[in-house]
Specification:
The chain is mainly α and 109 residues long. It has helices at 2-25, 31-54, 83-95, 104-107, and strands at residues 71-74, 79-82. The radius of gyration is 19 Å and the shape is elongated.
């Protein structure tokens, strides 16, 4: 499932960036139209990338995308971590709490 989602993301993301490039080089659009269409495509690409980061496709810390790894969701960061990074971050935060973040029990339930 992760492979399918990653492939779909990559295809769509590249398609949006290519469309933005095509708009920029299109002589039939006015400068205003180019800016508007290009911005719309970049907003869609940015939204897609945000959804990708929040999807359970790989670790947000080390970047591993191994299919066999279990991932844990950190609600505070809205990110998925592999077991190793989750545990390392949890232990580090318990030893070095940040006063501007909530209690570690909320970050790492």
């Amino acid at each position: 499932m992760r492979l399918i989602l990653r492939g779909a993301f990559n295809d769509q993301y590249v398609k949006l960036l290519n469309q933005a490039s095509d708009v920029r080089s299109n002589a039939t659009f006015s400068s205003f139209e180019k800016d508007r269409k290009e911005e719309e495509l970049y907003i869609r690409a940015s939204s897609l990338k945000k959804a990708y980061r929040e999807a359970p496709l790989g670790c947000g810390v080390c970047g591993t995308q191994a299919i066999e790894d279990d991932l844990k969701y950190n609600e505070y960061n809205h990110e998925w971590f592999c077991e190793v990074c989750y545990n390392e971050n949890q232990e580090h935060y318990k030893k070095n709490p940040h006063p501007w973040l909530p209690c570690w029990r909320k970050l790492y339930p």
